Write the structure tokens for this entry.
Amino acid sequence: MNNRKYNAVITAVGMYVPDKVLDNKYFESIIDTNDEWIVTRTGIKERRILENGATSDLAAAAIEDLLKTKDIKREEIDAIIVATVTPDMFFPATACLVQDKIGAKNAWGFDLSAACSGFLFAFQVGSSLIECGTYKKVIVVGADKMSSIVDYTDRNNCILFGDGAAAVLLEPTEDKSVGLQDTILKTDGSGEAFLNMRGGGSLNPPSHETVDNKMHYLFQDGKSVYKVAVVGMADVSYEIMKRNNLTADDVAYLIPHQANLRIIDATAKRCGIPPEKVTINIDKYGNTTAATIPLCIVEYYRSGKIKKGDKLVLAAFGAGFTWGSAFYVWGVD
Ligand code: UT7
């Protein structure tokens, strides 16, 4: 146990997924694919798509959902961290737009770019703001409108992604037995070549050429990413359990990033965690990037599966490469 005064604890949650569903049958009508391939290779059956609006709308809707369940004033929110790779625009930060949309007039905020590990990285940063004692109410939201950067003619990747957002409110507690206990966070920039969006930034400012070469779309060499992700996510989950003396029996849920059911299964297997203790939403939402982990948290908490005192292991792997794990003890009823 650490010797800080405060731990950061999640005291409220909220989520938003758009109504429009794209099922695997739809993809059969636009590219050369089939439901059986998608389900067996990825575990995805359908995903949600935001037709009108941007990532800030997803994030703001998730926070509005959170605020319905929590008796706090918007002015009390100290900070908003938006984990995303699909910001509304380069600047201002999506967090600023969200701050305005939800009327959190005393909050400061910023975006955090760590792709599929974004929520985990932002969770650590948001928790640090609470742990140091300076801030009392920090919102961390994972939000991505992946449909805005997906090439719907690229059959390797377009079937994978969906849009969504989920948010947690972090507050301080002096009860060290609950809240964020430990994290392991990693980056390896040599992975850039395998998963990126190279157009539009300072390296390749937007031009006819960048558009002609489809550089404004997500690029992924799926097979190469798979090989690294399957080892990276499993190792880091195993490591955090080991260094916190957690056995599979101790863990109530493994909450993994939802990129591929086979990666999730391999991670669970490495940790000895049985399937009933692994949160899954990839079948319904696909890969929502920074939103997968908090969406799992919200749905499993609201359905009564995650309870006070439950020990949770969170794990993610994504572009960068970025990856990591967290050990968290659920702290509220
Ligand atoms: O979230 C961030 C991190 N990202 C990940 O963790 C994703 C990691 N990668 C993956 O999840 C998997 O690599 C994919 C799901 C993207 C692909 O699965 P795979 O088992 O690695 O398939 P593959 O890329 O090796 O393709 C196998 C075959 C190929 O055909 P050939 O060359 O064997 O004839 C592909 O052309 O499947 C073909 N294929 C498809 N077939 C039907 C690729 N996409 C499709 C498709 N429908 N949509």
